[in-house]
Amino acid sequence: MTRPPLRHRIITNALLAVAALYFLVPVYWLVVSATKNSADLFGTFGLWFSRHPHPLRYLAEVLTHDHGVYARWFANSLLYAGIGAVCATLLSAAAGYALAKFPFRGRETIFNVVLAGVLIPGTALALPLYFLFSAMGLANTYWAVLVPSTVSPFGVYLCRIYAAAAVPDALLEAARIDGAGEARIFGGLGLRLMTPALVTVFLFQFVHIWNNYFLPLVMLSDSDLYPVQLGLTSWTGYADRQPVLYQYTVGGALLSVLPLMVLMTVLQRYWRTGLTEGSVKS
Predict the structure, then answer these.
(1) pTM over cut 0.70
(2) Which of 69, 121, 178, 190 is at a distance of 20 to 30 A from 232, taking alpha carbons?
(3) Does CATH number 1.10.3720.10 belong to domain 68-273?
(4) How sure is the predictor about 60, in pLDDT bands with cuts at 50, 70 and 90?
């Protein structure tokens, strides 16, 4: 195998290093800033620690401020993102599998409508969804954020493409000959073979819901229902009168990225197993 020229490797590594710095420097700044109080946030160099860092004490203050409201926001985010991502993954898997493996009239039309849904930004749907949920009496409830979060057009698209490539028709026919029903085939064979795609859909949807700001902003008015992002924004609105909230906002932002880091680390092995599927012809 011929190695690429040294010049190309240097350019590639340099670009990758710049990209890594672009993504890692803000995280490093969060880690450093979470060890400072409000005075040190503005009075010391942003990319280095203060003389007297107290990260554990400051993070504990974040969790106990205002009767532990941050812990409630964090739990709300876990609820919205966890349940929404699981439901969206299962619905996407079922819809994508059906579109890939069951020929029926109008299948391509439905798939094209799903593709059109991928192109519509979520902010364009927030106000219509609010009017709909308000008419149903569900505005300012958990359902107002949970129900829209269970829909993922991109997930349906990805599962349809992956099911068509990774689930052999001959295997499904053999299962039908053995007497297995369609639900059992889907649950026992389809979902297992589609695992890398399902993990991808779950991660994308979890991150999307966790970082979603506009939908909860439109739907919710009770601060006890806020997710982390909306709660931290409400703190910054009062920081001019309570400067300590700057410190709490930074600490809360650091805590809010930890679940995403853990999730990416734990689930990345499923991506690795799925990257080489189909690369070798049997």
Answers:
(1) yes
(2) 121
(3) yes
(4) very high
